[in-house]
Amino acid sequence: MKTREDKNEPTVEEQDTSKYFEDIKNDRAALRQFFTAMPKGGDLHNHLTGSAYAETYFEMAAKKEMYVDMTTGKLYKDKPEGIKVVRLSKDMDDLHNHRMELIDKWSIRNFQPYKYPLGPDEYFFGTFGLLSALTSDIDDLAHLMRELKKRAVKENVQYLEVMASSPHVPEYCFLDEADYKKYDTDLKYYVKKGDDDKAKALLGEIYDLIDTKATEAAADYLEFIKQLDEKSRINEEAWETTTDNGKRKLLCRYQGYSSRGGEPLKVFVQLYVVHKACLLSSDEKENLLVGCNIVAAENGEKSMLYYHLHMQMFAVLADKQNENKDEVKVNTSLHAGELTLGLTRPEHLTYHIDQAVNIAGANRIGHGVDLPFEPNSNEILKTMKKEPEGEPEDKPTGIPVEINLTSNEFILGVKDSEHPILLYHKAGVPIIISTDDPGILRTSLTEQYTLATLRYGFSYPEIKEFVNNSILYGFLNDKDKGQLKSELEKLFLDFEATIRENHPQPTLI
User: Fold this and answer.
1) What is the pLDDT of residues 293-319, one digit of tens each?
2) Measuring CA to CA, which residue among 370, 366, 272 is closest to residue 320?
3) Suppose 42 and one of 74, 112, 337, 470 were both cysteines; which one would form an S-S bond, judging by CB atoms 3.0 to 4.6 Å apart?
4) CA–CA separation, 120 and 126 (whole Å)
């Protein structure tokens, strides 16, 4: 029997697992059973406030006796004036019906498009605003984080990379009011005129002007992330799992972000604070804050108007790092191309991934759905593809795409052969399967792997490669990545041995 040291050839257990997988790859129930038990590596694309299930939000709101507008589903900490609300409690009359109605408003469960005046995308993104009264307090966020961690452990996930929160910046972004208004006016003028050089120069000027105050804010933001993680570890030992290899802890790291729907100066300053905080975090033993992102609906008014400028912001931040000769480079995973035909004008489907890769220098792309509409798609794929075998395994090449199948189906209406996942895969672009917002979307990482197999017919070795990619391309230091790779290898050996034992393949005579 071969051992894992024979890296170029599969073990007997791996071969038998692959044969069994081929037998069940069109059987949804059997696939769910298979993927439930399979180690899944990392979930690298998930938003904390969208990852918790509506049931959890209801329990929290009822415990706090918060108010809710049952017409819209919006929560309030204090009773609002002029709005008819219900006060939630564990002992309220008709508890069950209120709970069921709010779960439908706080997730896509039972969504009926003909009853909603706007599209599924507006319904989805609007959910976050309904729950904002429960997502601003660090103790509440820690409660949500504990749920996410518990579920990950039970789902055989070894690593979470979570978009947890954006940093707070003051109204005038560390500038005095007059300077803020002047820079705001000038920046928007350069955007309107398409003057990239002057826009980038102005961003660089702002960078230097606010450096000291932004660094102080970065320290505060990093402290917030550390407290969030620490508070979320309460009773952690109760939901760790014991395996043949001993006690297994879940490794969790965080991305900071800015919302692309904000005013451009605020977006830039928030990204700047996240970058500074990532650099501060890299100097610490437990490097918790490992990357920077930009979030929110990509087809929003400001998102579209300033998309090119946002990509320039990442370029400016990278240039400043080079000028400062920072030894650690801040990793970026950018939501890009979360668009499709009908969601925006066709001309706006032509450049988002291209600019994220070639201007912003993204290390990973989130979603990447509009790829087929981008005229430069073949060049994009060449840039993103993994180099041929022979590259060091600890220094993976290429720019992976984070695939979120349920999210793309609900928000964009893109599934089956409309989805570009096979374009990426056939071009050699590393694939990572992730959940996005599993609470609102009522899904799981297990279900994402199930859908990937049913819809696109991936083989077991391909699925296993996707799992390995979720560790190889995680924003981890070398030590953490090495430990996770070693653990994942052992977990797969155990998993494949169990599959072979429970589902022996017939012996050919």
Assistant:
1) 999 999 999 999 999 999 999 999 999
2) 272
3) 470
4) 10
